[in-house]
Amino acid sequence: MGINILIADDLTFIKLVLRDLVEKAGFRVVGEASNGEEAVELYQDKRPDVVLMDITMPKVDGLVALKRILKIDPEAKVIMCSALGQQSLIARAVQLGAKDFIVKPFREERVINAIKKILDIE
Prior knowledge:
Structural class: alpha/beta
Number of strands: 5
Number of domains: 1
Helix content: 40-55%
Distance between the termini: 11 Å
Largest sheet: 5 strands, parallel
CATH class: Alpha Beta
Number of helices: 5
Shape: globular
Strand order of the largest sheet: 2-1-3-4-5
Strand content: 15-25%
C-alpha cells in the first residue's frame, strides 16, 4: 500500500500497540516519537502520510506539536489520540486542524478506519 505512519506517544506500550495495529493493516511505521518535540522533528524528516499523536506528552504536548507540524505542512494529516475524559482537549485539537481523533483504549477497527478515512482509501 505504501502508506507511511508516524507514531507519537510517551508510552512505549501504546507505541507497540499502534505499531502492531497499523502494520497488520499493511501500513508502514516510519518513525516513533516519545514527545512532541521529537514528533515535529520526525515529521519534518520523514514526511509521513499520517501522524498518530498523543495529546498528553512531555516536553512539548500534542497540541503544540500539532500546530508546529501544520506550520511545516498545512496539509498534514494528524489523528490525535487521547484518554477518555479529555473531550475539551480533543475539541481543541480538531479546532487546531487535527483530522480525526481516537480514544484509548484503542479499538483496532477504529484506528484503521480513521487512517483510511483521512486518506480517502477503502
